[in-house]
Specification:
about 90 residues, alpha+beta, two-stranded antiparallel ribbon, about 35% strand
């Protein structure tokens, strides 16, 4: 399926989302309103972290110096360095 760059994509963590009780990661792609649908996928946090780590090793840091690590009120969020935020907002 082809998607536009502006297609909304959310990544959410689910405490106890797996049948084993372990945490999981949910990926939600919202299709255009006329499609009236969304694509949902779920995987374990372990597998998600392994995939992120292997892509980082293979391709290096493609965030342009961005960083991860804002944790507030039991929520984690991807945060970017000021330089990356400026580049993204001007794109």
């Amino acid at each position: 399926m082809e998607t536009l760059d502006a297609t909304p994509l959310r990544i959410e963590t689910l405490d106890g989302g797996l049948a084993s009780g372990g945490p999981s990661v949910g990926l939600i792609i919202e299709l255009p309103p006329e499609r009236r649908a969304a694509v949902l996928a779920q995987t374990s946090v372990k597998l998600f972290q392994l995939a992120a780590g292997t892509t980082h090793v293979r391709y290096g840091d493609m965030t342009g110096g961005g960083r991860v690590g804002l944790i507030s009120e039991n929520r984690a969020a991807l945060t970017f360095s000021p330089a990356v935020a400026r580049r993204l907002s001007s794109a």
